[in-house]
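Q: What structure does this chain adopt?
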Amino acid sequence: MSKPPYRALRAVLLIFFMISILGGLLMILVGRPFLARLMLNPPPGELSTLFVFLMKEVGGILVWMSFILYVVWRDPVRHARVIDASILGLCVLAVTSPLSLYTTDVRSLYPAYFVWGRSVARLAVAALFFYLRPEEKPSA
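A:
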């Protein structure tokens, strides 16, 4: 019996790999003026050196995660657990964004609909991964 090719899942994983590698490299390589434009021109005190440092650290983590997506893209059936972990991570991130909206003063930096829109988009991507993930075969 031949195994299904999972073309749709591989295409989605490749798209997210490309987006995450470009986003991670962008976060690592850009300077403070570009970050200020990217953050919708925040007040001068909001863009501290610590924030820029943490943004570059998150960029490094994003490059690392993009490598994991690349490995999963090559053989999604073998790495189905990574897809399941990505689904869980996206669901956790979808909950933490609105939580931070109400526990911090992030409304001064972003409109609330950006935060809610990101959460809905993360849940949609998690649902897409759940729909496209390889089915596990019960062990005999």
